[in-house]
């Protein structure tokens, strides 16, 4: 049956009409008439055009209503996201453009077919996807589809930075960075109040000290005040100052004189006897310093009406001195703050202490704990190393150790220390570089900025000392 006959038959049916048998000849003549054929073809063309238009509009409505989910962005963080046309089934889109991205720091890159940029504003950002589908004339207007992109705020911006109470009798600066000659090297050290403390206006609990001694030794001290102890900021300050003060006393300076001669004997003989004597000298001198600090904290607590626990602080310190045979390092540590020396070409790391983790279930030890001095492990808290040369002597509180090394098992791994140095040299998310050169006029500012690095979940005080 011809298309014309089908159309006319259907029209008659739609109008409740039929062709009786005796009118069949007339009907055949009617549908073959040129005017009938022209009218029918015109109707058929209009039907096809109507159907095509409807399908096009239905397809456009389908695309507009189709969910499009993009990766969430974050203010200040580089962003890349692709609208996958194949996955969305949009192969019939012939032209498109994205409007509304520029005001929030983004754009569509035609080369990479990605939305890229660094968002400058947070919120549920709506932009417009304008498109045309197959069949639409080139001069026709774009169809518009709203798309929502969630841009999260910069996590750093959610933290307050409230100044601590400068009228407090035990107040100290919230942030401090120093750079100075030390021995035949220089020391760069920074101690920063953690975000968790700045957010509520509480105090920096970490502390540090360093000094050259009259006998040629140099000393670096770091202490981390316990967050649970209400006066740990004073405890850490007293611990650092107390250690330096002890080694500056005439009696201590005199006692350390014997080390020079004993070391020479040890270098010449390499015997167990001189090694034992050296170990005993280190134990005696450094042990007295640690115990003196403990007693000073105990006396202060009793005098001021606090408990010794209120002053809880870790304590690590290293003395170093250059000899013809190399550098001697004497160390003591209690708590979870590591000390390490890197050799000249940064191919080997020498740890100067072990950390109070593991058997204590993650709980650290403090210089305020009397049991430290009664423990059979007390002697293992001291160290003596003689190294030909070194590139860096590094002491840090757990505010640096936790985000940069995570676990104690990473500390003997030289690759982790190489990564740490690369981080300092600019290989980090923020691209902040510290030029560890004694001729760098901006070294303090660079180091202070680097110390503010972002690490999710790590918002404790940070103290880092680097001798180079």
UniProtKB/TrEMBL annotation:
Domain of life: Bacteria
PPM-type phosphatase domain mapped to chain residues: 193-421
A Pfam family it matches: PP2C_2
InterPro entries hit by this protein: Ig-like_fold (IPR013783), PPM-type-like_dom_sf (IPR036457), PPM-type_phosphatase-like_dom (IPR001932)
Protein name, entry field: Protein phosphatase 2C domain-containing protein
């Amino acid at each position: 049956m011809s298309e014309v006959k089908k159309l006319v038959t259907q029209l008659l049916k739609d109008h409740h009409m039929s062709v009786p048998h005796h009118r069949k000849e007339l009907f055949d003549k009617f549908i073959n008439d040129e005017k009938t054929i022209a009218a029918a073809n015109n109707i058929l063309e209009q039907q096809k055009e109507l159907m095509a238009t409807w399908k096009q509009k239905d397809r456009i409505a389908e695309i507009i209503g189709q969910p499009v989910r993009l990766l969430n962005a974050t203010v200040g963080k580089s962003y890349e996201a692709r609208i996958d046309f194949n996955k969305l089934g949009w192969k019939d889109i012939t032209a498109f453009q994205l409007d509304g991205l520029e005001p929030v720091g983004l754009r569509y890159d035609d080369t990479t077919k990605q939305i890229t940029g660094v968002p400058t504003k947070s919120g549920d950002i709506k932009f417009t996807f304008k498109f045309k589908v197959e069949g639409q004339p080139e001069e026709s207007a774009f169809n518009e589809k709203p798309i929502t992109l969630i841009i999260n705020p910069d996590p750093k911006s959610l933290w307050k930075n409230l100044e601590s109470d400068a009228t407090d009798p035990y107040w100290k600066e919230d942030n401090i960075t120093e750079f100075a000659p030390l021995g035949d090297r220089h020391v760069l050290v920074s101690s920063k109040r953690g975000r968790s403390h700045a957010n509520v206006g509480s105090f920096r609990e970490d502390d540090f000290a360093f000094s050259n001694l009259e006998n040629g030794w140099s000393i670096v001290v770091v202490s981390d005040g316990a967050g649970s102890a209400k006066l740990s900021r004073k405890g850490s300050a007293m611990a650092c100052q107390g250690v330096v003060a002890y080694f500056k006393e005439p009696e201590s300076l005199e006692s350390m004189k014997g080390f020079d001669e004993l070391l020479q004997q040890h270098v010449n003989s390499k015997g167990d006897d001189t090694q034992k004597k050296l170990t005993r000298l280190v134990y005696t001198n450094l042990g007295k310093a640690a115990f003196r600090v403990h007693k000073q904290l105990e006396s202060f607590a009793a005098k001021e009406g606090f408990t010794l626990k209120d002053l809880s602080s870790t304590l690590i310190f290293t003395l170093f001195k250059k000899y013809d045979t190399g550098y001697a390092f004497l160390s003591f540590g209690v708590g979870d703050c590591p000390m390490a020396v890197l050799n000249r070409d940064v191919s080997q790391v020498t740890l100067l202490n072990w950390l109070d983790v593991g058997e204590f279930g993650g709980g650290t030890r403090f210089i305020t704990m009397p049991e430290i001095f009664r423990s059979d492990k007390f002697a293992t808290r001291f160290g003596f190393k003689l190294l030909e040369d070194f590139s860096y002597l590094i002491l840090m509180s757990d505010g640096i150790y936790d985000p940069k090394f995570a676990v104690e098992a990473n500390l003997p791994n030289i690759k982790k220390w190489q990564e740490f140095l690369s981080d300092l040299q600019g290989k980090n998310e923020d691209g902040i570089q510290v030029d560890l050169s004694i001729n760098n006029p901006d070294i303090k500012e660079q180091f202070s900025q680097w110390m503010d690095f972002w690490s999710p979940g790590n918002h404790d005080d940070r103290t880092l000392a680097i001798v180079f």
